[in-house]
Design goal:
- Helix content is 46%, strand content 20%.
- The chain is an alpha+beta fold.
- The chain has a single domain, classed as Glutaredoxin (3-Layer(aba) Sandwich), CATH 3.40.30.10.
- It has a 4-stranded mixed sheet.
- The longest helix is centred in the first third of the chain and has 17 residues.
């Protein structure tokens, strides 16, 4: 019975997120190939999974080091999800779309594990 209630709450929360607008900030370091790759990865992921329901701000830490410090960005690339709550921070390789989707509550970790035969 308790499991049914928890499942119902999860389904309700996921349904609410389906229409939510995502506010994302990507911190990169200059015009390096890793920065370009991170930008392409995040833009592609947003287009594929957020259907235009996102605002993506790209910040070069060389141009705005104060913002990076204020947001506690210590390494690049770093992707921040400011909305919808809860806020999340993902650091490092952003090419693993499953990792990004799970971290930002766009995909259930159990779905990813099942898809990999675990």
């Amino acid at each position: 019975m308790a499991a049914d209630t928890a499942l119902q709450r999860l389904e309700a929360a996921l349904a609410k997120l389906e229409g939510a607008r995502y506010e994302l900030t990507l911190f990169v370091n200059g015009a390096s190939s890793s920065s370009s790759r991170a930008i392409q990865d995040v833009q592609g992921l947003c287009e594929a999974h957020l259907d235009g329901r996102y605002d993506l701000t790209i910040v070069d830490v060389n141009d705005d080091p104060e913002l990076a410090m204020d947001r506690r960005v210590l390494a690049t690339p770093t992707l921040l999800k400011d909305a919808p709550a809860p806020e999340r921070m993902l650091v490092g390789d952003l090419s693993d779309s499953d990792r990004v989707l799970v971290a930002f509550d766009l995909r259930d970790a159990h779905q990813v594990d099942a898809g990999k035969g675990r």
